[in-house]
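Chapter summary example.
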Amino acid sequence: KSILAGSLALPAVASAQWYAGLAVGAGGAKVAAGSYAAGVRGMLRLYAGYEFTPHVGVETMTFDLGSPDKPEGSESTIGAFGIAAVGTLPVNRWRFTGRAGVMWMDGRADIAETKHTSQPMIAIGAGYDVIPKLTVGVEVGVSRVEFGAPLNEKANVNWTGVAGTYRF
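The structure predicted for these 168 residues follows.
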């Protein structure tokens, strides 16, 4: 029985692999136009993960949304560290992904204290295997951020990026 169970589990173990990647793009906090945090920001997401099977994995990430261009000088940034469960649907050379997890968000503004909060995140993506170990595609995601006193404001955070993932 144990030989049969081991041989059935072997394909899943053999397909397990590490991966790493980077996504660059743009994003923003959903706040009133003209606000301290309004405007499009550059986005950078670095990530690494482990695929247990071709369909299920887990991932850690760092995330940064830079400052929007604000002529009045008020500056805000959004940064995070996160973990997520990743589901992948491979179709020929295409990979459709979904991520659900938690991000430890930092809402930083020069007119308020930095606020550290845990926030849910979800993201979806589509990519194409350019070569067997390299996937290039797009992703969109959403989370939340809070800014500290005296602002005490919560905002949705949205991002869109181009992603590259390498599987080892």
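To summarize the output: The chain has a mean pLDDT of 89.
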